[in-house]
# Entry
Amino acid sequence: MCGRYVVTPDPDTIARFFDVDEVIAGDLGASYNIAPTDLIYGVAEHRGRRLLGEFRWGLIPWWSKEKGPLHINARAESVAAKPAFRDAFSRRRCLIPADGFYEWQNRPDGKQPFFIHAVDGKMLALAGIWSRWTDPETGQEISTAAIVTTKSAGAVSSLHDRMPVILAPSLWNAWLDRDLRDPEEIARLLQPISELELHPVSKLVNRVQNNTPECVKPI
DNA sequence: CCAGACGTTGTT
DNA sequence: GTCTGG
DNA sequence: CCAGACGTTGTT
DNA sequence: GTCTGG
# Structure
């Protein structure tokens, strides 16, 4: 699955990589340990333009009266049908930029974290869905997002049976296209990719308070 | 009709 | 909002 | 995802 | 064990 990840470039660098027209996100700073509830970058389309915005990690359906529970992931196999996700899936998709992400391997002696990243070291586009939600208590409106997961492939499958969907650049346009609303057509974009590298890292990453380059360093 | 749920993961 | 269960 | 909390009363 | 917070 995907419950922690890494983003280090500044917003302008991310925007260039994803061919973004306008940056509306603030500078969230480099993070080696992004966790659920954090603010994250997301690339989404608005009135035909590609924007880099910020989202709270943990999707809240627009009709929800409650702040929780958090939906940090959505299964590719069912995202089109689930009440909490289907509307976002057909109308509000985004790319979530990442240097890489973490998975924990279960071992007899505990859990071992791994950092997983592109072979060429470039940023990954994680498949995301998003929603606008108004807090009934404060009237505050926020954008929230979830990462779509799928069956793992390649080296990652030796660690874990789930991983985030990573979209190849050739699929970015279709994924962001808000006029593309046919669930079956959209679902065809969600394939696991296998060209990733991984290495074990320190258990420092287990604590969300630890946010240093040490988190991604091979051990 | 109204009430209540609406999610993923891992583990057992 | 929309579906399912009672 | 992992870490950390997990409770009430009364008083300040 | 299970929920909440980050």
